[in-house]
Amino acid sequence: MYHRTLSATDARRLHGFLMVCEDGRQIYEEAAAHTDDPGLQKLLTDQASTRSKTINALKPRYELHSGEQLHHPRSVQGLLQQWCIELGQRFGSEHAALSVLFSQLEKLEDHTLNMLYKTIRQIESGLLAKELSEQIVLVLESHHRLKQLKATYRL
To answer: What is the set of domains in the chain, with CATH numbers?
Structure first.
């Protein structure tokens, strides 16, 4: 039996952030599987790995203290981002496809970073806020890598 030490509100907020990370992981993995560009594929795989690290760091805390297994129903936002990426890849020129891809991935990065900051500000547990704060560096590095690669493609 699990011992609940997170408030229901904190558990819900942590769950929301973890779902944003899981959406990102799935989107990055899917996009990496559909590109032939080795540099882009490496970036996408690295981004998925960063999301996995964040999830793996926080998931046990959520499951232990909420008393629930983490499950991921795909969010509408995640589905829409994936759909935009697929449309860009299928119907555009290579440059147009990359432009759509990077536009959606930037939105994903911005949303993840904003969600992390919002969750940290709203969380009641000081210990959980500290654990979330430790993820800022990973998320910022991920954000920076995406912007660097976008610049190399001149998009």
So the answer is: 8-152 (1.20.1260.10)
